[in-house]
Amino acid sequence: MSKGMQWTESFAAFAVGIGVGAAVAVFFAPRSGRETREYLVNSAKDGLDNAVAAGQRVTRRAQDEIENVKDQVNDRVRQVKEQVREVKDQVRQATEAGERAYRESMKTPA
Known about the structure:
The protein is mainly alpha-helical and 110 residues long. It is built from two helices and no strands.
């Protein structure tokens, strides 16, 4: 079975467990209905706030990593461009030297 499928099944089981746990807690809560509802609402808000904060942290880390990768790619592109310039210069010099040698050989009687 694929990891994606295992993850979704695990998450579904976790969500069902939360629902069952919440239902049991409501039935056996030592508080009044109003207090229990307030507690559940506050707990849900806290959970949502924590999830949002975690999402923001993950987003920040991902953005930082993207910037790092961009910097590395840009550095590598600069290096490759410099290497290409150097090779083009070497090819140009070799071509000029070859042309000079050819012209010299044509001047010399055989």
